[in-house]
Each structure stands twice: as structure tokens, then as C-alpha cells.
From TrEMBL:
Alphabetically ordered keywords of this record: Coiled coil
UniProt similarity note: Belongs to the BicD family.
Originating species: Acrobeloides nanus
UniProt name for this protein: PDZ domain-containing protein
Superkingdom of origin organism: Eukaryota
Keyword Coiled coil set for record: yes
Coiled coil in keyword set: yes
Residue ranges of domain PDZ in the record: 6-88
GO (cellular component) term, any one: cytosol
């Protein structure tokens, strides 16, 4: 019958670390407890977590590696009573901790990817705003062309105004000339005794013509005044509108440049963080694979040692049974002694 005793693992003496369970026959359980409880272990420098091999209940081999323990078992196959085999639990715990760290880093990597996606969306939005801004710039360029066209029209109106003023000057000269002709005609009529009715008729015609000319001059002056005011006002309004749009465009461009610079910095930071997270994940993955490999190797060694232990225990049981058979044979041997025959 076998009685397992579970003990915790500790690192000691820089050797390879093992957790262990003690598997032994029932008559050796007290011997094991005596090693741990009665101070034999502490006097011999044995601590929890050390690999121990007991031979003949007296020889104690401490802090053994699996290879050393296997060698001792092969040397003393019939005298081995105690062997510590089980794989360390702390390595499994560290493996779980590394997996948890790996999951955490994967979550952080996913977060950084989400940040990159948001930055990409912001960049796309910024490009759309830039496209809108380009459209506004094209509109402003069209307004500039319209402004240049208005300037040409205004210059033409100024030329027309100069022509009207020249015509007005000519009309004034013509009016003066007409007055002189009237005076000359009046003076000539006095000298030549021309008929007064004809002179009055000519005078009336000239007055009518003079009034017509005055009306035309007044109309031309009003048209000239309105033409002069309208281009100036339109030019000033167009200039103010152009300056306002140019100011808004400059402010928007400056704002978009700052946002683009900030987005680039955020993208670079996110890229560096993603690179570091990826490198860390690969490192932890390599550690996990190494620990899994060492775990697999330790399991194989444990199975080997367990098979050796079972063989040793089986041999021990066979020897015990043979001893019992021999003892029973020795007990039966005296009863088979025959008494000598009595003399008659």
C-alpha cells in the first residue's frame, strides 16, 4: 500500500528546482515524517523543495538532479526507499503569469491598433477638409478673376466718363459759340435792319436747342455720377469680400497644418508603441515555448523515474515476499524433526 505526502516547492542552493510528492510503502511513512518533523532534515541541511533519496533508511542524498537520482537507483535497485519526483508548480504558475502578460500585451496591441484606425479615420477626415479647402481656394481664385474683370469694366467706365466730360466740354464750347453767333446776329440785324420776326424765330430755335443740350448734359451728369458711385462701391465690397475670404483661408490652413502635425506625431508614437508591443509579445511567446519545452522534458524525466521507482518497489515487494517465505520455511523446519526410536 502506498501513501502520498504533498510538500511545497522552494528554490535552494542554486540547483534545478523540483516540486515533489513522496510515494513510499506504509512502513516508511513514519521514517519520512521523522526526517521532516524531528529535525533530521534541518540538521542535515535539507529544506522543503530539495530532491532527497534515502537508501537503507540511513544514507540521505540531498538536492539531487534527476540524472543523479537515476544513477543511484541503478546502483542500489533493492535498497532505495524514498524518491522525490514531481515537477515544480512555480514553473506552471510562472507560465500562467507569462500567458496573462501576453494576453495583456495583446490587449494593449489591439488598443494601439484601434488608435491607429482612429488616426487613419482622422487623417481621411482631414483630407476631406483639405479637399473642401481646395474648393474654397478655387472659388476665391474665381472671385479674383471676377475682381479683375470688374477692374477692367471700371477702367472702361472711367474712359467713358472721360469721353462724356470731353463731350460736355465740347457742348459748352458750342453753347458759347452759339451765344456769340446770336449776339453777332443781333448786332448784324441792327446794322442791316433784318426782319425782327426771323431773328426771333432763329432765337427761339437756338433757345430750344440750348434747353435740349442742357437736359442732355444733366442726364449725362447723373449717369456719370451713378456710374462713378456704383463701380467704387462694388469695388470696395468685392475687395472686402476677397480680404475676408483670404483671412479665413489663412486661418483654416494654419489650423489644418497644426492638426496634421499633431496627427503625424500621434501616428509615429502609436507605430513605435506597436513595434515595442510586438517585440515584447514575441519575446514572451519565446519564453512560453521554452517553458513548455522544459515542462515537457521534465514530464518525460518524471515518467522515466516513476517507471524506475515502480520497478524498485516491485523488486522490494518481491524480496519482502521471499523473506516472508524463508521465515515461514524456517518456522516450519523444527516441526519436521523426527524423534529417535525407543529401545525395547
Amino acid at each position: 500500500m502506498y501513501a502520498p505526502i504533498e510538500l511545497k516547492l522552494k528554490k535552494s542552493y542554486g540547483e534545478e528546482t523540483y516540486g515533489f510528492s513522496i510515494s513510499t510503502t506504509e512502513n516508511l511513512v513514519h521514517f519520512v515524517r521523522g526526517i521532516i518533523e524531528n529535525g533530521i532534515a534541518s540538521r542535515n541541511g535539507i529544506k522543503e523543495g530539495d530532491c532527497i533519496l534515502a537508501i537503507n533508511k540511513a544514507t540521505i542524498h540531498m538536492r539531487l538532479k534527476n540524472q543523479e537520482a537515476t544513477s543511484l537507483i541503478k546502483q542500489n535497485p533493492k535498497q532505495v526507499h524514498l524518491l522525490i519526483l514531481k515537477k515544480a508548480q512555480y514553473e506552471l504558475e510562472s507560465l500562467e503569469a507569462l500567458r496573462a502578460k501576453l494576453l495583456k500585451l495583446e490587449e494593449e496591441l489591439n488598443k494601439s491598433r484601434n488608435v491607429e484606425q482612429s488616426l487613419a479615420a482622422d487623417k481621411q477626415k482631414l483630407e476631406q477638409e483639405n479637399e473642401v479647402l481646395r474648393q474654397k481656394v478655387s472659388d476665391l481664385q474665381a472671385s479674383q478673376k471676377e475682381y479683375d474683370f470688374m477692374k477692367v469694366e471700371i477702367s472702361q467706365l472711367i474712359e467713358d466718363q472721360e469721353l462724356v466730360e470731353a463731350e460736355n466740354h465740347k457742348f459748352i464750347q458750342f453753347q458759347l459759340l452759339t451765344d456769340l453767333q446770336i449776339e453777332e446776329a443781333l448786332s448784324s440785324t441792327k446794322d442791316q435792319d433784318i426782319d425782327k420776326s426771323e431773328l426771333l424765330q432763329q432765337n427761339n430755335k437756338l433757345k430750344v436747342l440750348h434747353n435740349i443740350r442742357k437736359e442732355q448734359i444733366a442726364k449725362l451728369r447723373s449717369v456719370l455720377k451713378s456710374n462713378k458711385i456704383s463701380p467704387d462701391t462694388a469695388l470696395q465690397n468685392l475687395k472686402n469680400k476677397y480680404e475676408t475670404k483670404q483671412k479665413i483661408q489663412d486661418e483654416t490652413l494654419e489650423k489644418l497644418r497644426r492638426e496634421l502635425k499633431q496627427f503625424k506625431l500621434n501616428a509615429e508614437t502609436s507605430s513605435s508603441q506597436s513595434t515595442s508591443y510586438t517585440a515584447r509579445c514575441e519575446e514572451l511567446q519565446a519564453q512560453v515555448e521554452s517553458l513548455e519545452h522544459s515542462l515537457k522534458t521534465a514530464e518525460e524525466e518524471r515518467e522515466t523515474l516513476n517507471s524506475l521507482l515502480r520497478t524498485t518497489i516491485q523488486q522490494n515487494e518481491e524480496l519482502t515476499e521471499r523473506l516472508k517465505v524463508l521465515e515461514q520455511g524456517n518456522e516450519r523446519r523444527p516441526s519436521r524433526i523426527t524423534m529417535p526410536p525407543q529401545k525395547v
